[in-house]
Design a protein that fits this description.
One of the primary rRNA binding proteins, it binds specifically to the 5'-end of 16S ribosomal RNA. The chain has a five-stranded mixed beta barrel with strand order 1-2-3-5-4. The protein has a single domain, classed as OB fold (Dihydrolipoamide Acetyltransferase, E2P) (Beta Barrel), CATH 2.40.50. It is an all-beta fold.
Length: 83
């Protein structure tokens, strides 16, 4: 079973590659306080569909390059691009 995560695209400047931040909240192990953290994933986007600010669903995959380990499944919420 492959992992699936939901995150926000923070950079789509590279060809077929996205930078996605996955936000998470967890309880601190010692102090018990709720802490927010983030995980940054490099995601393969074959058709260059997603843009910055989009909410996307990603899936774990085989290593595609030195840093890319995820592929884009779908764009959940697309943002309006201003030009």
């Amino acid at each position: 079973m492959k992992k699936k995560l939901t995150g926000t695209v923070t950079s789509s400047k590279r060809d077929k590659t996205l930078r996605v931040e996955v936000a998470r909240r967890f309880r601190h192990q010692r102090y018990g306080k709720i802490v927010s953290g983030r995980t940054v994933c490099q995601v393969h986007d074959e058709e260059n569909v997603a843009n910055e600010g989009d909410l996307v669903e990603i899936e774990e995959s085989r290593p595609l390059s030195k840093t890319k380990r995820w592929t884009l499944l779908q764009v959940l919420v697309a943002t309006q691009s201003v030009q």
